[in-house]
């Protein structure tokens, strides 16, 4: 091989090597592709009588106010009310009478979603709320959901319980079970129904990892978008408190705070407080979102999920595993630990969970945060809303997105909350739980936050989110200032009542709309919403003019756009003045440049060009002979005798006549696609009014719930009569061993040298055991004094010694050492 051939071979190999490196780099970028949050929908408790938190703005106002969203047991939850007893430890009872309850879970717009009255009544309210919040999230993203389009949307839902169907269950009478029993309550149908009703074609996943469910769902949604499995994704979470069973179970384990509140990181932390809510966020790859000019609220940079593995107990958090998942999320985000300015913690307010979580966060972030000199903010929305369990992660993400978007950090605790948890060495840590709101630290060059979650199942998730820099140059090109001129505004709904509500909200929004934002507002309402039967369409050159025109059109009354007489095709007539037509068409395409892209260009045939523009809007048009409407250079005709000017007598009038014609076609029922009717400066806005669902009540009443006597099944096999005296250590020791066998439900007495864990115990049965001991004796030992790996003999010995010591300490107060005897 001569030198020339060798040089050619080396050049080829070098070129191939560069191509391979470029491809590897491209694949690496795809693996870490940022994902944009483009829309959010929610129903969260407010604790007020005036309704739930049903929009991002309402949630943000709540976060910047004081107080909690907790309220008493609702009247329509008779099962929860029936099992309530303020005395902890009562078998079959719940000692909790407060939680974060939604005010309206029976209301639903079944007609809007095409669901029959019978099926709507039997649907788990979670499915109803998920349909509404998913629809709103997509509307706020400017994504119009037409079922026939089969949009490539993936649905990822975290939901851990469906308790509504319990009210149909009666083993003595199964006649209440009907075909909707399965589809109305099965967990898989929560996500499946969203995709079915809205006609999505992407992946559909319902998952249950307990309290980390919705953050696990978000992790899968991000992976699905990066892998190209879907173009859009919905990450959702849902939780309702409908059954007494889980409430009783959690109270029997002493997992819940008697006050019903999660006191995250506080000295008074004594268990978590429950809450309910539903949330959905719409996601896209960031590059796609920017290309489509969608609202980018924040950017998900990285996610990670893992499991505790062989921890001390299935339900106990594992600090090492939490450190691993936080590091993995930061690696996925390619963000350093010193860049985080906030962590939205899991923060359940439990004695065991909070210190472990703080330790994990400090282990990963502490050194870098100390080095930068700016403390890391920390908090948990659970202290305000309650712990939404399967939906807690999505509530935390929406809060974090709002914080990043606004550049502000709300207070994470109130002055009345008292001291922070003394078992956490706050003075040695670079973490702060703020007691007042403040701007995002100016010393940090980026606004980045982490969201932490761990589930009772052992699944841990961490998500890294960054604020979107709206000042950065848009990849779609430089910003173009609005040129003014006429705008087309469209509003529609399924019925007149909903249309009236929506029109009023749009008018109010117009009154607060800067003129520079008007093209974006009109573009969003035209192309980011589905057109329904009742329609209004107006044309104006200012926000005030459009608001007035909308009010006049509403007073005149909309005509229903029935499917039978909807406009499907039109004819176009043009004048003979080619020069004037050319100037008018140039002015029209300059106002809406995307309209001309892809349309068949025929400058020598204006009628064909106009038909091409109408085709871009989804309307079949054909040139026709004859003169256009009086005073117009071109006009459109349909229905035999209906005609409207398309082009006025001069270029200065464009595009007003064209838009007036489209308004008439829209109200006549034409199925127009307005995406291409987008001015150079128009973007999709995320804060416009969403569809006003018209609720009717759909509800199945709950059957009676009760407790079988005072000595319910599952109580101690040892009678309260004849309990050993607390000072009789041997007798108490024997009693404790018998009680342990009963709690563990062992067929034979356990080996005294076996540990509680090896005997089949866990944190739940340990709580049941201690609770039953406390029903009869005073105990001062903490859980840390009774580790689950102690041999049973030593465990009972420590308890017997403590019972005797506690009796001595209280002897001066009277004979109260035997409680309830």
Automatic annotation (TrEMBL):
Gene3D superfamilies tied to this protein: 3.30.70.3290, 3.40.47.10, ACP-like
Annotated coiled-coil segments of the chain: none
Entry keywords, A to Z: Acyltransferase, Multifunctional enzyme, Transferase
Protein name in UniProt: Beta-ketoacyl synthase N-terminal-like domain-containing protein
Pfam families cross-referenced by the UniProt entry: KAsynt_C_assoc, ketoacyl-synt, Ketoacyl-synt_C, PP-binding
PROSITE patterns linked: KS3_1, KS3_2
Domain of life: Bacteria
Domain Ketosynthase family 3 (KS3), first and last residues per copy: 32-467
